[in-house]
Amino acid sequence: MLKPALVAVTLIIGLSGCSNLGVQPWEKGQLARSDMALDSEKLDLALDDHIYFSKEGSSGGRAFAGGGCGCN
Amino acid sequence: MKKIWLLLSLMAAGVQAAPSLDHQVFNAQNQAVSLSEFKGKVVYVDFWASWCGPCRKSFPWMNEIQTKYQDQGLAVVAINLDTDNELAQEFLKQVPANFSVRFNPEGDVARSFDLLGMPSSFMFNRQGQLVQHHVGFYADKAAEYEQELVNLLKE
């Protein structure tokens, strides 16, 4: 008696458990806010760019094919 | 065991909820009203939100078809899905609507209609049956949408 019920419950949870994950199309209001955009902070972008260039400068940063070290 | 069946039937009920005019929404006065008030007309149900760009584009078109076909029995019903009503009001100030606007901040009607994107529109015939549904609003397809409504109005 208990076993089929258990199987049924497990099946239901297993089959429907992931059906409500994620954000529904009508719930994207918060994501649509301009301060949620990846490029909303210009200063932050500039700093990221500077750090990237500093780290990758020896290999040419993002402007050159090679940095002159002969390593790529 | 009884509880399990109850759970099962509850889940089944959730699955069966489908697009229809038998749903409760709020009107501008914040009173719960049913979409069935539009039964007998060709109903164009549109789901929109203030943050949705294409929705903004669809409003002038919906204004146009409402004025053009309301005498023939068309009802345009735009259901807002903003959780914050003030945002919706601000949108309506910028883009005035001359059709029926309803509100469903909980989004339960949207869930029943199983929206795949925003905006989504659903066309019901005079018998209240769902005939057609579209995801998104494309200006170059507007003539197509209109023709579908015209066909329904002629039925």
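qc> Residues 2-16 of chain A form the longest helix (15 residues).
qc> done
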